[in-house]
Design goal:
Blueprint lengths: L2 H19 L2 H15 L4 H7 L4 H15 L6 H13 L4 H9 L6
Helix pairs in contact: 2-5, 4-5
Length: 106
């Protein structure tokens, strides 16, 4: 495993731990950082940055959306982050996940 791959895994683990233990403000900051950093990123670039495990972050966002959409907690940030995943042409799992699971919200 290359040093770049090891760094990506380490960064992903840190991000996911921060998300899982984070408060509303921590999660909002993570989403805002993700939105700013990935507005013009390809699916391949996101996958590489997330050690080919972007789905782990995506599912956290959509799970949180499922729990909070009725009260509007960070709704704008959640939807912007999800839009970034959906706009990437190489992340088909997002589309399938969205259609099969998250759409049952509505």
């Amino acid at each position: 495993m290359s040093a770049k791959q090891q760094a990506a895994i380490s960064n992903l683990m840190h991000l996911l731990k921060e998300w899982d233990k984070g408060s509303l403000n921590v999660r909002r900051n993570i989403l805002n950082d993700f939105i700013i950093q990935h507005q013009n990123t390809t699916g391949t670039e996101i996958e590489e940055e997330f050690a080919h495990s972007a789905s782990l972050f995506f599912t956290r966002i959509t799970s949180w959306l499922r729990l909070t959409y009725m009260v509007g907690t960070c709704l704008s940030e959640q939807l912007k982050a999800i839009k970034i995943f959906l706009n990437t042409s190489t992340i088909n799992f997002c589309l399938n996940f969205w259609k099969l699971d998250v759409c049952t919200l509505f």
